[in-house]
Amino acid sequence: MMKKSLFIVLLSSAMSGVMAQEVQDLEVQYNPNSLNPIPVYEQHYKVRVWRNIDLREKQNKGFFAKNGEVSKLIVDAVKSGELTDVYQNDSLTTKLSKEDFLSRLVSEQAQTFPAWSPTQTFYTDDIVTHNGRNYRAVQDSQGVTPSEDATDNWAATTQGSGLEYSIIDMSTLHLMEDMIFDRRRSRLYYDIQGIEIIVPGSKTTTGIDLSLGWFKYKDLEKLFRNNIPKAVWFNRLNTAQNKNFADAILLRLFQGTIYKVQNPDDETIDDTYRGNGRPYREGVWAREWTEMMLMEKEHNLWEF
After folding, report:
1. Burial 146-177, CB ≥16 within 10 A → b, else e
2. What is this structure's pTM?
3. How far apart are CA 77 and CA 57, in angstroms?
4. Distance between CA atoms of residues 139 and 116, nearest Å
5. 119 Cβ partners below 8 Å, 6+ apart?
6. How far apart are CA 192 and CA 149, in angstroms?
7. What does the pLDDT average to over 238-254?
8. What's the CA gap between 75 and 102, in Å, rounded?
């Protein structure tokens, strides 16, 4: 009887070990960030690419219609708490706190400014008199109007909580995706991993693109599906065929220029082709060459 009990215990332990190993193998075989993961053993070919999507372009305006911008939907979802996971970079592992995300929304120009600067942005229609001249009332972000006895040299400064970038400023997306050729289904899939919201350098004081954060596409797809009245891709040619953002992305109704392909040095295409004094146009051409080479690769895969 004791031998039988010992056998049962050993058998149970062995089965538990096998099940744990199977679970671990499944985690290795499937990408947890994929919306529809393709097992590794079915992947005949795979390459990760990063695309730059300018929402101001004509082909992308459906995602950036007035009061229906995709960036507005995402930012509002973070503020409301509907979207909780924001990431610092495209590794999609290190999270960004909500406070840090909100701080990135603050325009650099509005954090510190002269109280009576000629370039001051005016926030009210009130008229005040200063040194015998009339001006529109200047208010900082806290609603405080500078006093009329400010010094003539206008050296006084006002600290405010800052103004947020407008949604129009959030006009660029970076999209990271895996191009995977499925050997079993004999077709190429675009497996989107994440999307980043960018404020272009032309809208920042530093002249450098500002990243607001990365988001897993799995989370965004769920957000789009849960906000059907708001997540509308606008069809300017036929509004009867407006679509959900998720469907529009699935149908590839956007234009995104490849700016990086996975490589050992983690270089962008511009890093590779615009070094050593090469002209800017070589980087632009290289992006187009890369697109064509990937299309040719897809075509050649059908020969296997």
Report:
1. beeebeeeeeeebebebbbbebebbbbbbbbb
2. 0.75
3. 25
4. 10
5. none
6. 58
7. 97
8. 9
